[in-house]
Specification:
The complex is a heterotrimer of chains A (336), B (367) and C (445).
Chain A lengths: L1 H27 L7 H7 L6 H11 L5 H14 L1 E5 L2 E5 L14 H36 L4 H14 L3 H15 L18 H35 L2 H8 L4 H29 L3 H6 L5 H10 L3 H29 L7
Antiparallel strand pairs in A: 1-2
Helix pairs in contact in A: 1-13, 5-8, 5-10, 6-8, 7-8, 8-10, 9-10, 10-13, 12-13
Chain B lengths: L4 H14 L3 E12 L2 E13 L4 E5 L6 H9 L8 E8 L2 E2 L5 H7 L4 E4 L3 H4 L6 H10 L7 H14 L5 H4 L9 H13 L5 E5 L7 H18 L2 E6 L2 H7 L2 E6 L2 E7 H6 L4 H8 L11 E2 L32 H4 L4 E4 L2 E7 L5 H13 L1 H7 L1
Parallel strand pairs in B: 3-8, 3-9, 6-7, 7-8
Antiparallel strand pairs in B: 1-2, 1-4, 4-5, 9-10, 10-13, 12-13
Chain C lengths: L4 H11 L4 H4 L1 H5 L20 H7 L1 E2 L9 E15 L7 E16 L3 E5 L6 H8 L7 E6 L2 E2 L5 H8 L2 E4 L13 H11 L5 H14 L16 H13 L5 E5 L7 H18 L2 E5 L3 H7 L2 E6 L2 E7 H6 L4 H9 L5 H4 L33 H5 L5 E4 L2 E3 L17 H4 L26 E4 L4 E4 L1
Parallel strand pairs in C: 4-9, 4-10, 7-8, 8-9
Antiparallel strand pairs in C: 2-3, 2-5, 5-6, 10-11, 11-13, 12-13, 14-15
Helix pairs in contact in C: 7-8, 7-9, 8-9, 9-10
The chains are: A mainly alpha (336), B alpha/beta (367), C alpha/beta (445).
GO molecular function (chain C): ATP binding; ATP hydrolysis activity
Protein name (chain C): Peptide/nickel transport system ATP-binding protein/oligopeptide transport system ATP-binding protein
Family (chain C): Belongs to the ABC transporter superfamily.
């Protein structure tokens, strides 16, 4: 197990290195010079070829690509000084660059935005598991009945709406058409400096949107896994032992059905942690998702690079966690 | 639900004096399907006394498992319609409430299944699964008692180092050991009725022999009534006192093992006997299959359900086999022997036509 | 055979090997509006009587002692590496699934391979069809050593060695029609022009007793027995010379097993195919195979003709195996049959016992069994056994019978100066002379 985790971490580091290289190369060989956006911004869109050359030179874009990538990697480990035109910016390790827009070190901004994104992700995931799994179990126990069919088809309808549309409609109806008192002022407020209530009320609608949408999906996953588990031979054995229905369904059925659900959830939750772009944008939450969206719009290359790297890291870790949890849940699985 | 083993066994003893421990009468099991109701079992009657073994033989879809699951009350009451009478130790279980049924299940009657790997929960330790079976019927017992009982049962069924293996998961056991653990779990509450559904089908012959030995030893020890469901006539011959042959949901022949396997009177039983080669038979014996396939229960054949595959229906006058379902009537070999067939003199057909082809050596012996 | 064209039409069903009588295929030829199409192939001619059915049932296959070998397997080995867990996965051992087995499959004949799960019988089948590449040994087939050929060189030979699988439910692709499944080998090997594929497929379906009109149906529309027929048709597509049948009937209902066994016997006599018949059901093997090899933990422990193996087996394992089979005839007597009880489980093939692999469960085992591996010794005209104490049930000798040949004493320690006399212990076939257990001399017929 330990050896397995070490092995996976090593391969994870390799993947992160490859992703960082790929992102670096994509920007380097992009359609316009990587210095173009910063030049445009600094000169208020009067970037002449001569000015561009200055930016390229200070940013090192006239050097060979491997040399600059080397500097980037070195910055991650020991920090570096970044020169944009005439100004110099200190960037301490682990340095992911300096935002072209705010001139702030990307890492610091990333860290400062994590609480918002994590709050949205954890709250939303909590809601959809809280409702999705039990509803799924209930539907599986009543499979084939009218209740089950109604539930499955209505949930299928909801989850076939594109999520951005669903979130937008939620926001529209619950803040403008029928404003929910206390919760219609959405946004992220710090749990510590502005108090738990403010934090809670700002995020509530985002959680509801994420929760309902995720609930429809997790109900279906759970129901599917549960129907399969309940048709297994060991359920018949449990019944033949004279166990009460509750024990059969939860201890024997759900325990087995949870394995695939946990697998999906691990990947899903990793994606959420890496940034919920639509949710954050629609509910005006200053998290990683919205930030990366702004970075793409503003061609803020260091930020785009950093958020892409960040999602890679989060996904690799959540994948690893899923595999470890899997081996804990299913004693037949041996990690090697 | 509290059940005290003492009263259980005394109730069972009372029932024993009255007659067989398990008495099934006119059992009918119907499942609704999208294509209409399917009657998986009908008109089935049999009984098993304590200390006796009934073998149920039939092909897939013959209703042999469905009927036993009805005895255990394992069918979903919402979908399966069960009528007739099933008396277990004097208690009528058709229509019995789920909570009272649960008190009997795994307690005074237990079932062991074919594929022990699938029938044991893959995520729980063998010991835990045995303890659970004990605790559910012994609400006063402590976890420690249950564990002691589990180890004792594993030891009893011949698992080496039971105190260590009790903490293994099912996948860490070999096939034979898993089946032993399954039997231990079935017998942990000293049931008076044990139903074994194809208990040795997936096992190697030497392991099969060990498991059959074990079942017989345990039956002697606990004096339980045993039902063995199998398609292996060899197993039936060595284990069963009585044999019930099922075809398309009905009993087609019923009698002692000796009657059924030496003087069978129903062409389907002949077909079963002629389609298995024998280890010691003459090499001149022919392997004669039953033609065709088992019928669909959705649209069962008219008359005798076996008539489309029967090669002896030409010996019955008219098209009686096609139009009329033969009744289950006493056979010529004895009153305890019942058969469902229109043939007038089945013994003669068997002796003169079938036996010379499938066991020429036996014919010489009898002459 | 008659040359009268009218008579020919009548006997044709049996001629092509179809068990027409069992399935009632021929009846379908007559248009019949009342027939439910989906169940057509399940119905029977009403005039089918017992006598006709009997004609289609076969007696046990007979041995042709003079048949030349079509496949000669010599010292075949298959070791699967076992890797360690941990950062660097080193090979820490081998599963000796098949460890030096030799046998011959006679042309148009059948060799049965029996043994318990894990004995290596299925691996042997997969080696012969080259689903695995053997670790060592040779498999001579028509002048080619199948064990040495590369996958590319193997390709043209694959058509000659085909396989029938156990599970008719998983071995057929559910998304392909029966026609595609059966015809696929023809297209892969580009043997017949495209427009000839369908007629050949229909011919094959007819041979195995299915309605040739059903070529465009999917496997799920057929019952288990019929699917196994489809599997057999697929194996026959390329006119193979050797068929490896790995538990071909064990997944089927009892009544259907006999249909399939009869079909295989029909096919064997019709097309002169040799069978390597792998099964754990000793009675079926006895019926189908005039010669049988018994395997235990990767080795052949006894091989011989039917009468010898089932009548007077000399290896304690064969004896135990046979005594464990429940017997229908026991019904006349009542109770259980006497049997030899084997204690414990089969040991791990990763680290098999030294000397004789069966010794850990054998009641006759002595010191020599742990020290020296018993050679597979020919002790009769068509009988070889690998046991130091080989003998009929109840007549196992008190001292090892192999000491002279191996140059060892009764405890298995080498005798100084003694020269092992038998140098041909592992030839695949049978010698004209053999080692007589009572005289301890080489004798001949």
């Amino acid at each position: 197990m330990f050896a397995y985790v070490v092995k996976r971490l090593i391969s994870g580091v390799l993947v992160v290195a490859l992703v960082s290289m790929a992102i670096f190369l994509l920007f380097w060989y992009g359609p316009s010079s990587p210095a173009q956006p910063v030049c445009d911004r600094e000169t208020s869109n009067r970037c002449t070829p001569a000015r561009l050359e200055v930016y390229e030179k200070t940013l090192g874009y006239d050097n060979p690509v491997y040399e600059e990538y080397g500097k980037f990697v070195k910055g991650v480990f020991v920090g570096r000084t970044i020169t944009i035109a005439s100004s110099e910016y200190q960037c301490s390790a682990p340095c992911l660059g300096v935002s072209f827009r705010t001139k702030q070190p990307v890492k610091e901004e990333l860290v400062s935005r994590m609480p918002a994104t994590f709050s949205v992700a954890i709250g939303g995931a909590f809601l959809y598991l809280l409702f999705g799994v039990p509803i799924g179990v209930a539907a599986a126990r009543r499979r084939g009945t009218v209740t089950d069919k109604a539930l499955v088809s209505s949930f299928l309808f909801i989850s076939s709406i594109p999520y951005y549309l669903f979130a937008l409609l939620t926001w529209l109806y619950l803040t403008l058409t029928f404003p929910v008192p206390l919760f219609s002022d959405t946004g992220y407020f710090s749990f510590f400096s502005e108090g738990p209530w403010k934090w809670f009320s700002g995020l509530f609608l985002a959680w509801v949107a994420l929760g309902i949408f995720g609930c429809t999906q997790y109900t279906r996953f759970t129901r599917g896994a549960m129907v399969e588990a309940l048709s297994e031979d060991y359920i018949r054995t449990a019944k033949a032992k004279g166990l009460p229905a509750r024990t059969i369904v939860y201890k024997h059925g759900l325990r087995a059905a949870l394995v695939p659900v946990v697998t999906i959830f691990g990947i899903d939750f990793g994606t959420l942690l890496a940034g919920t772009i639509f949710t954050e944008r629609i509910f005006e939450i200053q998290g990683i998702g919205w930030w990366s969206l702004q970075a793409v719009q503003g061609r803020d290359l260091p930020v785009v690079q950093a958020t892409a790297l960040f999602s890679a890291v989060v996904l690799i870790i959540s994948n690893l966690l899923v595999d470890v949890v899997y081996s804990v849940l299913d004693p037949r699985v041996r990690l090697s | 639900m509290t059940s005290v083993p003492m009263t259980q066994s005394s109730a069972a003893a009372a029932a024993e004096a009255d007659g067989p421990f398990l008495q099934v009468e006119d059992l009918k099991v119907t499942f609704p399907t999208e294509d209409g109701p399917v009657t998986a079992v009908q008109g089935l009657s049999y009984s098993v006394a304590k200390g006796k073994t009934l073998g149920i033989v039939g092909e897939s879809g013959s209703g042999k498992s469905v009927s036993s699951m009805a005895v255990m009350g394992l069918h979903d009451t919402k979908s399966a319609q069960i009528s007739g009478s099933i008396r277990v130790g004097g208690t009528e279980v058709v229509g019995l409430s789920e909570s009272r049924m649960r008190g009997l299940r795994g307690n005074s009657m237990a079932m062991i299944f074919q594929d022990a790997l699938a029938a044991l929960h893959p995520f729980y330790k063998i010991g835990g699964q045995l303890e659970e079976a004990y605790l559910v019927h012994h609400s006063g017992a402590s976890k420690r008692d249950a564990r002691r009982k589990a180890i004792e049962m594993l030891d009893r069924v011949g698992i080496p180092q039971p105190d260590r293996r009790v903490d293994d998961f099912p996948h860490q056991f070999s096939g034979g050991m898993r089946q032993r653990a399954m039997i231990a779990m079935g017998l942990i509450n000293d049931p008076s009725l044990l139903i074994a559904d194809e208990p040795t089908t997936a096992l190697d012959v030497t392991v099969q022999a060990q498991i059959l030995d074990l079942l017989q030893d345990l039956q002697r020890e606990f004096n339980s009534a045993v039902i063995i469901i199998t398609h292996d006539l060899g197993v039936i011959a060595e284990m069963a006192d009585d044999v019930l042959v099922m075809y398309a949901g009905r009993c087609v022949e019923y009698g002692t093992a000796k009657q059924i396997l030496t003087t069978p009177e129903m062409p389907y039983t002949w077909g079963l006997l002629s389609s298995i080669p024998d280890l010691s038979a003459s090499t001149d014996a022919r392997l004669i299959p039953i033609p065709g396939n088992p019928p669909s229960l959705l649209r069962p054949p008219s008359g005798c359900s076996f008539h489309p595959r029967c090669v002896h229906s030409d010996k019955v006058p008219g098209d009686l086999c096609v139009t009329e379902l033969p009744e289950l009537l006493p056979a010529s070999s004895g009153t305890a022997h019942l058969k469902r067939c229109h043939l007038a003199d089945p013994i003669a057909v068997y002796q003169d036509e079938v036996l010379p082809e499938i066991a020429p050596d036996l014919v010489e012996e009898t002459r | 055979m008659t040359q009268d064209p009218n008579a020919r039409a009548e006997i044709e069903p049996t001629e092509v090997g179809a068990n027409a009588a069992e399935t009632g295929e021929r009846q379908l030829r007559q248009p019949d509006a009342d027939h439910d199409v989906t169940n057509d192939h399940e119905l029977l001619p009403e005039d089918l009587d017992f006598a006709t059915l009997v004609e289609h049932g076969h007696t046990a296959s007979e041995l042709d002692p003079d048949a030349p070998a079509v496949l000669t397997v010599d010292n075949l080995k298959m070791y699967f590496p076992v890797r360690s867990s941990g950062l660097v996965r080193r090979t820490i051992g081998h599963v000796q699934a098949v460890d030096g087995i030799s046998f011959e499959v006679p042309k148009g004949g059948s060799l049965g391979l029996v043994g318990e799960s894990g004995c290596g019988k299925s691996t042997t089948g997969r080696l012969i069809t080259r689903l695995y590449k053997p670790t060592g040994g040779s498999m001579m087939f028509e002048g080619n050593d199948l064990a040495k050929l590369s996958n590319k060189e193997m390709k043209p030979l694959r058509r000659d060695v085909q396989m029938i699988f156990q599970d008719p439910y998983t071995s057929l692709n559910p998304r392909h029609t029966v026609g595609t499944i059966v015809g696929a080998p023809l297209e892969v090997h580009k043997i017949v022009p495209k427009d000839k594929v369908l007629p050949r497929v229909q011919e094959l379906l007819e041979i195995v007793g299915l309605n040739p009109e059903h070529y465009n149906r999917y496997p799920n529309e057929f019952s288990g027995g019929q699917r196994q027929r489809i599997g057999i048709a697929r194996a026959l597509t390329l006119n193979p010379k050797v068929l490896v049948a790995d538990e071909p009937v064990s997944a089927l209902d009892v009544s259907i097993q006999a249909q399939v066994v009869n079909l295989l016997q029909d096919i064997q006599s019709e097309f002169d195919v040799a069978f390597l018949f792998i099964a754990h059901d000793l009675a079926i093997v006895r019926h189908f195979c005039p010669e049988i090899a018994v395997m235990y933990l990767g080795k052949i422990v006894e091989i011989g003709d039917r009468e010898t193996i089932y009548g007077k087996p000399h290896h304690p394992y064969t004896q135990a195996l046979l005594s464990a089979v429940p017997d229908v005839k026991q019904a006349a007597v009542g109770g259980r049959r006497e049997r030899i009880r084997l204690e414990g489980d089969v040991p791990s093939p990763i680290n098999p016992p030294s000397g004789c692999r069966f010794r850990t469960r054998c009641q006759f085992a002595q010191e020599i069994c742990a020290k020296v591996e018993p050679p597979l010794l020919q002790i009769g005209k068509r009988h070889k056994v690998a046991c130091h104490f080989a003998g009929e049930l109840g007549a196992h000798p008190a001292t090892p019978v192999t000491t002279q040949l191996l140059g060892v004493d009764d405890q298995g320690s080498p005798v100084p100066g003694a020269t092992p006399t038998n140098t041909q212990l592992t030839i695949p076939g049978y010698e004209k002379t053999w080692y007589d257990l009572t005289t301890k001399q080489t004798t001949g017929a």
